[in-house]
Design a protein that fits this description.
179 residues, alpha+beta, three-stranded antiparallel β-sheet, 2 helices, elongated
Length: 179
């Protein structure tokens, strides 16, 4: 059995009793789209609280960590603090799927899988360096956070659909006129 797994029956808890376990867990790296946001330092210190109920267990996961990765708009490095306080219930004799934790199988809690899923669910839809991040200029790629938007302008490219019309206009302007 791995260090990230806890044999709930071996804790020897009677109904109403509880126990805490400190674990060091190396969770899967969460991602959004194709960008990965690894845990700073690789490991997370987590506390698992196990309470015995009359027909199973009530579980609580508490952890905090720092994820690192790129801003979704400007690609600058971002540190994303995450705090977790998750709960699960496992009542093995219940027919209600809500009372059967997917992280407990045969009395063994897989804390690593639980922490990995909790991190993924705690992440925002979009990781930003700041809420008003302006992103990158689509023309030149410069970070718009570092320039004055009023001064950062590009000439608008000519529409290629009007190229022939421009040729005709330029040709008629260059011909000597009939005065």
């Amino acid at each position: 059995m791995e260090a990230t797994q806890i044999d709930l029956e071996r804790l020897g808890l009677r109904s109403g009793q509880a126990r805490s376990r400190q674990l060091t867990v190396a969770p899967r790296t969460p991602s959004i789209g194709s960008e990965s946001y690894p845990v700073a330092g690789g490991d997370v210190e987590a506390t698992i609280e196990v309470s015995r109920t009359t027909s199973g267990f009530a579980l609580r996961l508490v952890a905090k960590t720092l994820l690192t990765g790129p801003c979704a708009r400007c690609l600058e490095p971002v540190e994303l603090p995450i705090r977790l306080a998750e709960r699960e219930v496992d009542q093995p004799r219940s027919d209600d799927p809500e009372l059967n934790s997917p992280y407990v199988e045969d009395g063994i809690l897989d804390a690593g899988a639980w922490l990995s899923d909790a991190l993924a669910l705690a992440m925002p839809d979009k990781v930003l360096c700041r809420s008003d991040c302006a992103g990158l200029c689509p023309e030149c790629g410069i970070s718009l956070n570092d320039v004055d938007p009023a001064e950062h302008q590009h000439e608008r490219p000519l529409d290629p659909r009007f190229a022939k019309l421009r040729e005709l206009t330029e040709a008629s302007e260059s011909e000597p006129g009939d005065d």
